[in-house]
Amino acid sequence: MLLPTTCILLICFLSTSLSFLANATLNRTLPHQHPDPEAVVQEVQRRVNASLSQRQMLSLQAKDQISPCLTGNPIDDCWRCDADWQNNRQRLADCAIGFGHNALGGKGGQFYVVTDSSDSDPANPVPGTLRHAVIQEEPLWIVFAADMGIKLKHELIVNSYKTIDGRGVIVHIVGNGCITLQYVSNVIIHNVHIHHCKPSGNANIRSSPTHAGWRGRSDGDGISIFSARQIWIDHCSLSYCTDGLIDAIMGSTGITISNSYFSHHDEVMLLGHNDRYALDSGMQVTIAFNHFGEALVQRMPRCRRGYIHVVNNDFTQWEMYAIGGSANPTINSQGNRYTAPGDPNAKEVTKRVETDESEWTDWNWRTEGDIMVNGAFFVPSGAGASVQYAKASSVEPKAAGLIDQLTMNAGVLGGRRESSETASTSYPGFSNGSTTYSDNTGSGDGTSDYFGMIFGSAAAPPLTLSSTTSVLSSLLIFILTLHMTTTNLHLLLLLPLIL
Where does the record place the region Disordered (predicted)? Predict the structure, then answer.
């Protein structure tokens, strides 16, 4: 009788040990999380200062006859000052800043020219279409042969090492599902309009040349970033989507969102799946040189956990709040301009979502060099509430007085923004007459069928030690119960130790 008892105790010990290791794993950093986010912040400021200093120096030398390409915006100045940029398109991949600065996109790969705006069969995309381009395995730099409006039948699943480059043409991506970046890395999305995205799914959709699988219902995000890394979204115009304009969840990190224009939307940007999802503690996002424009309500962004650097953006409208958060995210706001609405009850930039002050008083939310307009105010906390917070930047952020200069080209270059005057504009195969706000079925609020969307795709879910532990524990309990009921019934008393 000693041997079965010993085996049972050993199983209990192993089960407990695996559970401990699972919890420890969940608290570890993400593989691609930067070990020193403050260093990334300082490098962003250094790049901005260097570009502005170069503009000032050349302006003095040329007596104000300065090239229009030199705006002081380090991203734009990196490639727009090249008169031959159309023949050097892949230089763009060297111009990112912030946490997503290592996003390669399709750098080094061949150019793929989209010539067909159709999307008739998402399971078998036609060569020459955007869908056929983004599912390929090899690095590709995707460009467009002409202006086009692409109405998606279902979500567009983008593979790793892709650049969607809309420079030189006007490209509108609308329709069902819109853009999904799931379990991928090194994606650049540049200079495209993304709007009027709606939920879709319950269909076969191809995600690679060798795999088409069943997808559950998507949320209707403009861009959905799900367990992805090294992502850069630049010079896009986003509006009128059912869920978020950009949502990043489930352990995504290494993201830069820059030079984009956001308008006509309720819940603009969600960063983090839910308050309990520990892996989002490793999320690191840079939000720089964007214009948060007309008819926006909230979530610019709304953060859960992670480190979020909000730098040199222009917030010209919100109805509830600009920046919100829960579950102790670090929010570093530098050199932004916040213009509050007329509503006297909506002057505060910040909102701690469903959290008592006793809990958020230690959260590190800080403001430095921001300009508050029309009564706007930012409530700092934690180290950010101190005049000198830990590891304060040695490079001062540029004053928000330069915000007009830094954000003057936010949105699609050369294209109209989705303003009220274009709300009824028709694009090929699509009429965007609807101007309704979000239906509040957010991907990170537990109300959407994100498990159906992911596991229905036949893609392998992310393997974690905790999920492995659950499977092993269940198997061991089954075997143990079967053994005891046949040979050692009295040992059932030990079963609660395992459970």
Answer: 417-441
Residue type (1 letter), 100:
G
For residue 142, report the phi and psi dihedrals to the nearest 5 degrees: -95, 125
Over the stretch 405-442, which tens digit does the pLDDT of each residue have? 999 999 999 866 554 434 433 444 444 433 332 323 33
Instruction: Provide the CA 286 distance to its chain's centre, in angstroms.
Output: 10
Lowest mean pLDDT among 29-43, 411-425, 484-498: 484-498
Q: Interior CA angle at 219 toward 216 and 223, to 5°? A: 115
pLDDT value, residue 400: 59
442 phi-psi bin (left φ>0, alpha ψ -120 to 50, beta other): beta
Pick from 191, 195, 82: which is nearest to 410 by CA?
191
Which of 55, 299, 366, 417 is flagged as catalytic?
A: 299
Residue 307, pLDDT above cutoff 90:
yes
Q: What CA–CA distance (Å, rounded) separates 49 from 53?
A: 6
pLDDT tens per residue, range 256-288: 999 999 999 999 999 999 999 999 999 999 999
Q: 247-283 in b/e burial notation, b at 16+ Cβ within 10 A?
A: bbbbbbbbbbbbbbbbbbbbbbbbbbbbbebbbbbbb
Longest dimension (CA), the chain: 96
Q: How many residues does the chain have?
A: 499
- We find that the CATH architecture of domain 37-50+74-453 is 3 Solenoid (2.160)
- Residue 230: alpha-carbon gap to chain centroid: 10
Look up tokens 């609405």; give the residue.
341
Nearby residues of 445 by Cβ (< 8 Å), 6 or more positions away: 274
Nearest alpha carbon to residue 409 among 286, 259, 195: 259
- CB-based contact 369:334 (threshold 8 Å): yes
E strands present in 71-184: 110-114, 140-144, 148-152, 156-157, 162-165, 171-176, 179-182
For 151, list phi and psi in degrees, rounded to 5.
-100, 110
Q: What is the pLDDT of residues 211-253, one digit of tens each?
A: 999 999 999 999 999 999 999 999 999 999 999 999 999 999 9
Q: What are phi and psi of 265, to 5 degrees?
A: -160, 155
Residue 71 has pLDDT above 50, yes or no: yes
Q: Is 419 helix (H, G, I), strand (E, B) or coil?
A: coil
374 is written with which tokens? 């029309």
Any residues with CB less than 8 A from the CB of 385 and at least 6 apart, and which?
Answer: 366
Give Cα 156 distance to the centre of its chain.
16
Cα gap 189→414, rounded to integer Å? 16
Identity of the amino acid at 103: A
Q: Which two tokens stand for residue 391?
A: 């590891």
Angle at 258 between CA 427 and CA 228, to 5 degrees: 90
In the residue annotation, 80 being an active-site residue is answered as no
